[in-house]
Structure formats: structure tokens, C-alpha cells
Automatic annotation (TrEMBL):
<keyword id="KW-0812">Transmembrane</keyword>
<keyword id="KW-0472">Membrane</keyword>
<dbReference type="InterPro" id="IPR007156">
    <property type="entry name" value="MamQ_LemA"/>
</dbReference>
<keyword id="KW-1133">Transmembrane helix</keyword>
<dbReference type="GO" id="GO:0016020">
    <property type="term" value="C:membrane"/>
</dbReference>
<protein>
    <submittedName>
        <fullName>LemA family protein</fullName>
    </submittedName>
</protein>
<dbReference type="Pfam" id="PF04011">
    <property type="entry name" value="LemA"/>
</dbReference>
<dbReference type="InterPro" id="IPR023353">
    <property type="entry name" value="LemA-like_dom_sf"/>
</dbReference>
<comment type="similarity">
    <text>Belongs to the LemA family.</text>
</comment>
<feature type="transmembrane region" description="Helical">
    <location>
        <begin position="12"/>
        <end position="30"/>
    </location>
</feature>
Amino acid sequence: MIRSYFRSVSRVLPFLVALVMLSGCGYNVIQQNEEAVNRAWGDLESQLQRRADLVPNLVATVKGAAGFEKETLQAVVEARAKATSIQLTPEMLSDQAAMSQFQAAQGQLSSALSRLLVTVERYPQLKATQNFRDLQVQLEGTENRISVARQRYNQAVEVFNFSIRKFPNSITNNVALNLKPKEYFKADAAARAVPEVKF
């Protein structure tokens, strides 16, 4: 009786040990954290696209102002074209060069928009139009949402990067997943300041 009990336990024990070890390996945690990074990236991309979508309306509104500097408008149009031409998939978020290129293009767009808004200060009749004021408010709100989305993305990256480095998750990652740390979205020097909108 006792022998059969020990045989039963000795057969079940390896499965129980394996189950306990697998539940603490971090596989699911790593997967969940990577999904959080991908979701946060999608939110950030959505806000960046919203800003890019506002640019044509802003340019069209400003273009109607007599004597408005064409170089400023051209810089905005070119910066938007470059920013929207560079796409990052979630699989590319670990690629430092791709992320740097993406960040630089977004920074150039932010810088060009800032210069545009500063230049508009010299055109009071343009600033007084309802359409332009509405676009300014939308742009300012979008820039604030971009800042929040960038912060949330970076927080998700921090959690993910730590989860693939801590023990025992690091073993699981090295053996089963081989995921690389994700890159943070750092604001380009030109994009660090939200454009100041004055009425």
C-alpha cells in the first residue's frame, strides 16, 4: 500500500514540479508586457498621424494670407512628407537606427510647425480667422496628446525591458523567445517644446 502510494507520487511529482517551474518562468508576463508596448506604440502612432492630418488644413489656411513666407510653408510640407514616409512596425521597435530616423523626422515636423506658428504672429488678420484659431487649438491639443502617448509608450518599454532582464524571465527569454529590448521614444531636440499658441 505504501509502495503504491510512493509510486503514484513519484509519477505525479515530476509533472507538478514542471508545472510550478513553468508558472514562474515569466513567459506570459513577457508576452503581456510586449503587447502593452505594441498597444502604447499604436496609440502614439495614432496621435502622430492626427498631427500629420492637421498639417494640410493648416497650410491651406495659411497659404491664403497675402504675402505669407513660402519657405516656411514649404518646410512644413516637406517635413510632413518625410514624417509620414517613415513607418515603424512593432517588430522594428528594437531597432535603434530605425527609431532614431523616425524620431528625427517627427522632430523636424514639430520644429517646422513651431516656426510656422511663430511666423503667423506677424499676420494678425490670419490669426483672427476662426478657421486658423480652430486649427491652432486642435494642433496644441494634439501636441499635448503626443506628449502623453510618448510618456505612456516609454513607461511600457521600461516595464518590458525590465521583464526580459529579470530572473527567471531572462532565462525564458534567452531560451524560448530571444526578444530584444525596445527603444525609447526620445523627443528630438527640436520637438522638446510644445508650440506656444497665443491668441
